[in-house]
Structure formats: C-alpha cells, structure tokens
Amino acid sequence: MNGLVIVQHPLIQAKLTKLRDGATDRLQFRHILEELTALMVYEITRTFPVRPVQVSSPLERTEGHELARPVVLVPILRAGIVMLDGVLSLIPNARVGHIGMFRDPQTLEPVEYYVKLPPNLAEALVIIVDPMLATGGSAIRATTLVRSRGASDIKFLCTVAAPEGVSRFREAHPDVPIYTAALDRQLNDHGYILPGLGDAGDRLFGT
Questions:
Q1: Alpha-carbon distance 183 to 109, whole Å?
Q2: What is the mean pLDDT of residues 95-115?
Q3: Of residues 96 and 203, more confidently modeled
Q4: pLDDT in tens, 62-76
Q5: CATH number at residue 171
C-alpha cells in the first residue's frame, strides 16, 4: 500500500513474534515492545536531516553531526506510553506530548479525554506512537489534533496494523506515512486485529 512501510528487519520480526505469543508475560511484553520500538525508530529517522558540529576528542578537534530539527513524540494513551521509552533511549532530547483516548465499545470510535502537546510543532518531526492500528479511528483523530496545532511533518508508528485501519488512515491523511512491523489479515467483529497481539493495553498493565 502507498504510504505504508513494513519494517522487515529480522530482529524486529523476531521480537514481534514474542509479542504475539500469548505466553509472553507482562514484564516481557513491556520490555520487548520498548526494544521493538527503538529498532523501528532507526527506519523512521533514516533520512533525518543533520547539521555539522565541532567537538573535541581526547586528541584533537573534529567535525561531527547532530540532528538538525527537533523531534516530538506523541504517544496515544494508554498503551502508547510504553513505546515512549524505546524512542527516548535513542533521542533523549525529544519533547513529548500526550493524547488520551479510549475506544467506545459500541461504536468503535475514539473518545478523547486528554490532550497536552508541546508548542512550535511546525518546526519538528512529530512521531505519533501506538502499538496497534486497528480501525484507524484513534490514529486519525490524533493526527488531526497535532495538525491543528501546526504540525506538518508527521509519521505514525505502530507494531501491527489491519488493512481496514490502514485504508481509513490513508484516506484521511494520505501524506502521513505509516511505519509498522506487520500488516495483519483483518479485524474481527469487535475491532481487534487478527492475528494481532490481543489487547496491548491489557497485556501491558494487567487489566
């Protein structure tokens, strides 16, 4: 699909398999999700602009590079918050916003309950993170929110996606690329991804 990047790196696919496994306990699930997110950030930032900077090694002055633009991370609460540490382990100076949503069990549409975003989003690369892209409702709403605050360079990062959610997201935000470790088969009648990971929030927090 246009605008969909499936990251096929062997380490990512091995960790995704552990996430799918229902026998993976809560502590393992959290740790593996953080690691997988960190690995996927390499792909997202592959073409990120850098600028030269002078540093002093123990022996002499030399030129290196630093990121040329700020990065803003926006996890969709609640499950997206666990992915945050994976990104911050690589980009510790990134600013962080939060968008809280839950899915109405009847309509399957997102219900927004909290939004706190950093200023000056127009200057930054904004990475929205959520483990699942299922119906697409939360991802679409979150992207619309950050756009309304001035963001123009936005990427969406998830671990697994459903074709239905990808199609709906692409229709709403055709210029925002989706990065995922897998495009799964379909949604079931309750809006869960098959084969998926189960409910990522419940598996992370024991609810």
A1: 21
A2: 83
A3: 96
A4: 999 989 899 999 999
A5: 3.40.50.2020
Residues 6 or more apart from 34 whose CB is under 8 A from it?
Answer: 82, 83, 85, 86, 89
- Residue 78 binned pLDDT confidence (cut-offs 50, 70, 90): confident
198 versus 206: the higher-pLDDT residue is: 198
Alpha carbon distances (Å) from 130 to 34, 55, 60, 83, 139? 12, 36, 44, 7, 8
Eight-state DSSP code of residue 121: G
- Residue 159 CB-density burial (10 A; 0-12 exposed, 13-18 middle, 19+ buried): buried
Per-residue pLDDT, 180: 96
Q: What count of other Cβ atoms lies within 10 Å of the Cβ of residue 70? A: 16
Domain count, the chain: 1
Which structural domain, as residue segments, surrounds residue 100?
4-205
Type and span of the H or E element at 147: helix 137-148
Task: Residue 4: count other Cβ atoms within 10 Å of its Cβ.
Answer: 18
Pairing relation of β-strands 61-67 and 50-56?
antiparallel
pLDDT at residue 96 in the model = 95
The residue behind tokens 């995922």 is: 180
Strands (E), the chain: 4-6, 50-56, 61-67, 71-77, 95-96, 98-103, 110-116, 125-129, 132-133, 153-157, 160-161, 178-180, 182-183, 186-187, 193-194
Amino acid at 93: N
Tell me what the mean pLDDT of segment 154-174 comes to: 95
